[in-house]
Design a protein that fits this description.
The complex is a heterodimer. Chain A is mostly helical. Chain A contains 13 helices and two strands; from the N terminus they run H-E-E-H-H-H-H-H-H-H-H-H-H-H-H. Chain A has helices at about 10-30, 45-50, 50-85, 90-100, 105-115, 120-130, 140-165, 170-175, 180-210, 215-220, 225-235, 240-265, 265-275, and strands at about 30, 40. Chain B has one domain: MetI-like fold, CATH 1.10.3720. Residues about 255-280 of chain B have low confidence and may be disordered. The chains are: A mainly alpha, B mainly alpha.
């Protein structure tokens, strides 16, 4: 008895709504029909490398990189503390850290507005204790903060899941052989956690790179990232060719990082956790 | 001392993660329209929500899409899982890889690619297109939730039922589906949550005046903070949070691991898959 046919409706669905749309991205990225006829072109891909867009891509990479580094610096200790076994209420803590991963990025970003605004809570506090009002929004700082806020759990979780799997006897052995805490960390714990670190970096970097909501809301539209350009092409400008070319670039970056994760990352969290 | 420092550090991280949300919810009860001044508790903004026809429409759209999309995704995904598991290894791998694409791709890419599809085949952007998009990104999560349960299922009961004269569908309904139920329900709840929660994909696949709550929040938030959005956001947060806690609790009770997330859900599927492969050998 073959139950294979049960999956046929899904296979059809999958072909139409997953495969065809991807082919369309490739199609629009490589064709042009401004003259009324559809012709093959590399113009859209070339356009990506014009100074205007190259600058945006550079800025996106730079800001996502900073956000990733900050997430790593904040997240690694948190993951270590969570993984240390002498810790009651660990599962509650873990759920609290994981829950935001699932919650709406838009809402979580919006929640910073009332804190960061010129008339916002932080500035009210500062002025009430005699400081000058500080411009917290509409700048790079706000966008990076938004990224760190949104993606920090994505750094903590994979590092945590690698750290808890480390065999405690290896650490004890290192200690028995006379290693101090710093050495145990540098020579044993950290090297063993590298797969988790790589997964965490990818899971933070990729969504930061493709966001348009964070930059739109926290910079008030002043800072343009790759995501914003794509959004504009599809909602305002109508230049699907360029929009598709940029989407293709994002997909290639994802694809490359997936290969990277599969090779060096913690496979168990790598592929699955990327959002 | 060290322990205390560790606790303080974790507390600060959690404070960072939750403070903005808490502030947002608290200020949704603020009487004053000016944002940062607290002028007393009030439900004004919530009352206003229920007289704002635009917001009420969005609420209806959000819930209707979530319900219909998650029901269809659950049926589609469950049958998909039943069929996929019987495939040859190569086909199985291919289907699985394609299924993961909407999970792995940035939402913006999924959104614009579906938008182009709808334009290409001539479906007008609106309720239907948004519904189709939601079914598309929900179904993989159902498959991911059902597959692991399927590996634990005892197929022989199903075969026995058929030997005893049950039709394939009757046998399926009476033997396999009950065993899969926990996975199916988790898949349904996940789909519902993701659908209610989605902004980016909806943003690109809707049109006309069909908007969900997230889109209302976005269009209002572009103009700055507004206590009404705080109220909408607070409602959305509480709903999604409650749904997530239910999903997590179900997962917790079915398996003892605390660590339940998209990552671990998929992770478990992978482990079980590799187990399945070993058994084949």
């Amino acid at each position: 008895m073959s139950k294979r046919r049960f999956s046929f409706p899904y296979l059809i669905w999958m072909s139409i709504f997953i495969v065809v749309p991807l082919l369309l991205i490739i199609f629009y990225a490589f064709t042009d029909n401004s003259s009324g006829k559809t012709v093959f072109t590399l113009e859209h891909l070339k356009a990506i490398f014009e100074p205007l867009y190259l600058k945006v891509i550079g800025r996106s990479l730079y800001m996502s990189l900073i956000a990733t580094v900050v997430c790593f610096i904040l997240g690694y200790p948190a993951a270590m503390i969570l993984a240390s076994k002498d810790f009651a209420k660990k599962s509650t803590m873990l759920i609290l850290i994981v829950l935001p991963m699932w919650m709406n990025f838009l809402l979580r970003t919006y929640s910073w507005l009332s804190l960061l605004e010129n008339e916002g809570l932080i500035n009210r506090f500062l002025t009430s204790i005699g400081f000058e009002q500080v411009q917290l929004m509409y700048n790079n700082f706000a966008v990076v903060l938004g990224m760190v806020y949104n993606f920090l759990p994505f750094m903590i979780l994979p590092i945590y899941s690698v750290l808890v799997k480390i065999d405690k006897s290896v650490i004890e052995a290192a200690k028995d052989l006379g290693a101090n805490s710093a050495k145990v960390f540098g020579r044993v714990i950290f090297p063993l956690s590298i797969p988790g670190v790589i997964s965490g970096i990818t899971m933070t970097f990729m969504p930061a790179l493709s966001t348009f909501v964070i930059s739109r809301l926290l910079s008030g539209g002043k800072i343009t990232l790759i995501g914003n350009i794509i959004e504009q092409q599809f909602t305002i400008t109508g230049d699907w060719g360029l929009g598709s070319a940029l989407s293709l670039l994002l997909m290639v970056l994802i694809f490359v990082s997936m290969i990277f994760i599969n090779k060096y990352g913690d496979e168990s969290v790598g592929a699955g956790g990327l959002l | 001392m060290k322990k205390l420092l560790q606790r303080i550090y974790l507390f600060l991280i959690l404070l960072f993660l939750y403070a903005p949300i808490i502030v947002l919810i608290v200020y949704s009860f603020n009487e004053s329209k000016s944002r940062a001044v607290w002028q007393g508790f009030s439900l004004t903004w919530y009352q206003q929500l229920f007289t704002d026809s635009k917001i009420l429409n969005a609420l209806e759209t959000t819930l209707l899409i979530a319900l219909v999309a998650s029901v269809i995704a659950t049926v589609l995904g469950t049958f998909a899982a039943l069929g996929i598991i019987k495939m040859k290894k190569k086909t199985f791998e291919t289907v699985r890889t394609i299924t993961y694409i909407p999970v792995l791709n940035p939402d913006i890419v999924t959104g614009v690619s579906l938008m182009m599809l709808f334009a290409f085949v001539g479906i007008e952007l609106g309720f239907i297109s948004m519904l189709l998009a939601h079914i598309t990104f929900c179904t993989p999560y159902v498959i991911i939730s059902v597959l692991p349960k399927l590996y634990q299922t005892d197929i022989s009961v199903y075969e026995a039922a058929q030997d005893l004269g049950a039709t394939p569908f009757y046998a399926l309904r009476k033997t396999i589906i009950p065993q899969l139920m926990p996975g199916i329900v988790t898949g349904f709840l996940l789909s519902f949550t993701l659908s209610v929660d989605d902004f980016v994909i909806s943003y690109f696949t809707t049109g006309g005046h069909v908007e969900n709550l997230s889109m209302i929040v976005f269009s209002m938030a572009r103009k700055g903070v507004n206590p009404k959005i705080n109220a909408v956001s607070a409602l959305l947060f509480v709903t999604v949070m409650a749904l997530l806690l239910i999903v997590n609790k179900r997962e917790l009770s079915s398996k003892r691991h605390a660590n339940k997330s998209k990552a671990t859900l998929l992770n478990r599927e992978k482990q079980i898959l590799s187990m399945g492969e070993n058994e084949e050998k």
